[in-house]
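QUALITY CONTROL LOG
STEP: pairwise intake check
CHECKER ROLE: data steward
CRITERIA: each record must contain a sequence immediately followed by its structure tokens, with no blank fields

ENTRY 1 OF 2
RESULT FIELD BELOW
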Amino acid sequence: MIQPFHWRLGLVGIPGIAIVLLVGRLITDPLHAAIAAGAAFSVGFGLSRDLFGRRWGAMAAAMIGMAVAGALGTLAGAWFPALAIISAGLAALCAVFALSDEDLWWVALQVVIAFMMAGYFPGGLDAAAERALAVTVGGAVEIATVATIAALLPTPLRRLPLAAGRRDFQRSLAIAHAMRAALAVLLSLSIASGIGLAFDYWAPITALIVLKPGLHDTRARGWSRLLGTAGGCLLATLWAGGFAVGHLGLTIGAIIAIAFTYSVQKASYEIFSAAVTMTVVFLVSLGQGGAVDNAEHRLLATIIGGLAALLVSAPLPHRQPKTIGPDRLGGQS
């Protein structure tokens, strides 16, 4: 039995994404539909959060931040040095938030992910505007449907508890963790791009999520991420490749995987990683095709990102004092 299993989050978060996928199918624009659905998926995690006391604040902030980051990433992707340096800087900022405020960290993580994803698909101003619009539409549909359904529920849909209580901010720890995050993202992105890995942004995203202030914690999170990703890749391959499903089958698989992902976001990290991997593989395959290949690329990117996080942590691991709770780094991509 998977515990905790927040099934209401899964049911409430699904309709908006299903609407986006359906409309994308009707207008025969699978690429932008996949971008919008991916944005809706990310924004949907804000259902379990708030920001500065505002119930839908985290979702709205993530949507706006992702739209801006998507546009800028599309433009920066034309020159890899700019993409890599800006990604590293955003990762460093995200790492600082991880040690100070969990909700701000979550919003920052969505911004970093959106920027690196967009950088893989470089283009001019038109392409940047189209991506920003797709992200905004997907996020807005998700927020609107979630808020509407939540208002109709007989009992309030409350945010999930924080992973840890608010901690005292330590400047030395934040600086060290930010430097490691920047280096891990820079290293993993350079390696993945250098070997020509498809969807190379998965590697730095993994590195950022896996990296924690203590070497032991980074190693444990890395193994959990790897095991979960391997399991998710296997299940996605069996569904999409083994059963030779078409667009409808991928859509159904994505909806099931998304509902499950929302429901298990506070369960074991292996299960959560497997659910996220299945979702990402299905959504990418809906927009780009090649589900089996995408699963293989996801697994290789996870290995690269995890090793990069370990490499930058091993020389000078910076452990937290015992009086401070465990690090909150986690994520959904």
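ENTRY 2 OF 2
RESULT FIELD BELOW
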Amino acid sequence: MNRYAEIDALLRSTHQAFLTSLHAVLEADRGSAAAVLAGARLRQAQVADAEGALRRRAWVPAPQLARELAFVAGIARLGAATDRLAAHTAGADAAPAPSPALSRELTALADAGDRRFRQLIAGASGGGPNRFDQGCARALFEIADHSSLAAAPVVELCAGVAIALLDVGRQAQAAA
């Protein structure tokens, strides 16, 4: 797709926030959740840097630029979903440890999300074709589907993160 350091940095920082946020929920760690929120401004600045880098290129067909900007906007939405999950954990009064079922969902989201981020980073860095394995997508779809059946706010937030990850993968393929 592209070889811009700005997009790579944005993906890497969003990946780290994603993993830290899920760890915070799993461990009921409000300090880690607060650290994710503290990095939100940096990620917002990275979005602006990535958009600027895309717009500064000498000449790019408008449809290609639009697809690449949509990819960056998708990463920004994923970061915002991750921040909402962290805010929920950071703001919870004595957040209880998640149930075993929720722990399994969170672990599955962390595993599938980590794989998807690694694939996105490899594509953005020019490290290989921007192809995504179907098992990862199925796991994310399943998490989003299970989460739609639960009423707990953290489960709904996880569904939002899973959906945002699926959208970013789709946008990355479109921009490739």
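INTAKE CHECK: passed for both entries
DESCRIPTIVE NOTE, ENTRY 2: The chain has seven helices and no strands.
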